[in-house]
Design goal:
heterodimer, A: about 160 residues, mainly alpha, Wheat Germ Agglutinin (Isolectin 2), domain 1, 3 domains, two-stranded antiparallel sheet, B: about 350 residues, alpha+beta, Creatine Kinase, Chain A, domain 2, eight-stranded antiparallel beta sheet, two-stranded antiparallel ribbon, globular, binds zinc ion
């Protein structure tokens, strides 16, 4: 199966996302998954996974010292000050930071406002996945005429999003 | 004109409400990991976006003037201890202050008189919308707004109120309050001085959790929590007044008398007396002094404010004397209500 976002690469990850009040499945390649902010490696961020990440950190630390490519912070520095060096540190050290964030806030999932650009992008993605579902349904029903309309709409929307 | 010149909702107990948003621009590493040039770029970015604000460079002003900004709650103490170009952008009425180069690139703060955290949040968010037009923020779908300290992740919002709790303090209830607030994700701390030894019975209550809870929800929980604290404080005041009317009257009026006649006042003594006078005004044991003037006194009698008011040219200052002069002028307006016997 192809990635639902780029349509090029083979889909490697399956995500269940909620659009409005129903849940939909999305299939993405690793590039798009990362770009769209999904956690790759495991589709569902369960607590068990968090703890195993936590337990694994000791082993990883010995293996090689990870340095943030953006700001040059090491985990030892972050641990020492309790503060990161740049936004990218949250990705670089996500396996070690997330359990810490979980401890502080009781969750690792933001609820609330987002920058306007982000809100717009999200809305477009919502429309996109709805269209994709409609397209799939049309194909299922062999209603190719309708499917072509959805396909064009998706193309137009994607074109707009890239600009 | 400042927030403490006005009396807002529940103004007898709640002096002010505050909302603070921590934000960073995605283009630059966080403060402490930036080159001086990058620091200057971030500063220029904020100044450009808020060009109708007044910019005060903390790194080049006199330490006492900078200290006065802290005392008036316009900047944090941490901003002063940093290095490099940094300062604060102030709106005309000083209700909005945007710190640049503190722990995060920008810290947007809105201050309102009285119990109005919702208004404060709204005002801070307006400025937030302006700044995000200037350059994209560091934001992650999972973690929300990215901040230098993970304790601010998510909304980056710290919403708080400054409250005067003389009766809860006297009853020794603050420690208990601290423990139960902590379980709810809130924190109470003394405004001047640490922990339970709060000067002037003034406290700051604010949220600790910033991630996984929406801005409005943080504010509405704060309102609920503070609402029940207000109810308790009011209840204790009523009880005390009913049981010991003369003792309360004596305490408040005596304090007003001291403030109205003192020639030398140390900071702790003045704070203590002000607390009694505030209490007296709110329960009718004292009249004649507008509460707003008491609020003003609380802020402006702090050392940095006194020095910066006196002006730089004064070489010798007796702060305790200046403080007493300021207090006398206000406390002399006190009118003692007649007692029916
Ligand atoms: Zn893809
Ligand atoms: Zn980094």
């Amino acid at each position: 199966m192809k990635c639902q976002h780029c349509g090029n690469n083979e889909a490697e990850y399956q995500y269940t996302i909620t659009v409005g009040n129903h849940q939909i499945e999305r299939y993405l390649c690793s590039v798009c998954a990362k770009q769209l902010g999904y956690k790759t490696g495991n589709a569902d961020l369960s607590f068990d996974q968090l703890f195993s990440d936590f337990l694994n950190t000791k082993v990883q630390k010995q293996a090689s010292e990870v340095v943030c490519p953006r700001c040059g912070s090491t985990w030892a520095e972050i641990q020492g000050s309790g503060k990161v060096g740049c936004a990218e540190c949250y990705q670089t050290f996500s396996d070690r930071l997330l359990p810490y964030v979980q401890k502080i806030h009781g969750t690792v999932v933001h609820v609330g406002r987002a920058p306007q650009a982000e809100t717009v992008a999200r809305k477009a993605e919502g429309i996109l996945s709805r269209l994709q579902a409609q397209l799939d349904a049309a194909v299922e029903e062999q209603n190719y005429e309708q499917a072509a309309i959805y396909r064009d709409e998706i193309r137009a929307l994607k074109g707009g999003m890239e600009q | 004109m400042s927030f403490y010149d006005q009396i807002g909702a529940e103004g007898e107990i709640v002096v002010s409400s505050r909302a603070r948003l921590a934000r960073n621009f995605t283009e630059y590493p966080f403060p402490g990991h930036m080159t001086e040039r990058e620091e200057q770029l971030v500063l220029d970015l904020a100044k450009g976006a808020l060009d109708h604000y007044t910019y005060l460079p903390v790194n080049t002003m006199s330490p006492m003037n900078a200290s006065a900004l802290v005392e008036r709650h316009l900047v944090s103490r941490e901003l002063l201890s940093g290095t490099g170009p940094r300062g604060v952008l102030l709106s005309e009425d000083e209700s909005i202050s945007v710190m640049v180069g503190e722990e995060d690139h920008v810290r947007i703060q809105a201050l309102c008189a009285g119990f109005a955290p919702e208004t404060a949040l709204k005002q801070a968010l307006e400025v937030d919308r302006i700044l995000e037009q200037a350059a994209p923020y560091a934001f992650d779908r999972k973690l929300g707004y990215l901040t230098k300290c993970p304790t601010n992740l998510g909304t980056g919002l710290r919403a708080g109120v400054m409250v005067h709790l003389p009766m809860l303090t006297e009853q020794g209830a603050i420690r208990d309050l601290m423990a139960s607030l902590n379980k709810l994700g809130f924190i109470i701390r003394g405004l001047y001085g640490e922990g339970t030894a709060a000067q002037g019975d003034l406290y700051q209550i604010s949220n600790q959790v910033t991630l996984g809870i929406a801005e409005e929800e943080i504010v509405s929980r704060l309102e609920q929590v503070v609402g029940s604290i207000l109810t308790k404080e009011e209840e204790l005041r009523r009880q005390y007044q009913k049981m010991y009317p003369m003792r309360l009257m004596d305490r408040c009026q005596r304090a007003a008398g001291l403030l109205a006649t003192a020639r030398i006042l140390t900071q702790p003594e003045a704070m203590k007396l002000c607390s009694h006078v505030r209490l007296g005004l709110s329960c009718g044991c004292l009249k004649g002094i507008p509460m707003a003037e008491m609020n003003r006194l609380l802020f402006e009698m702090q050392p940095g404010c006194l020095v910066s008011q006196a002006g730089e040219e004064r070489t010798y200052l007796n702060l305790d004397q200046m403080r007493a002069d300021m207090a006398r002028q206000i406390a002399q307006k006190a009118v003692l209500p007649l007692i029916e016997s």
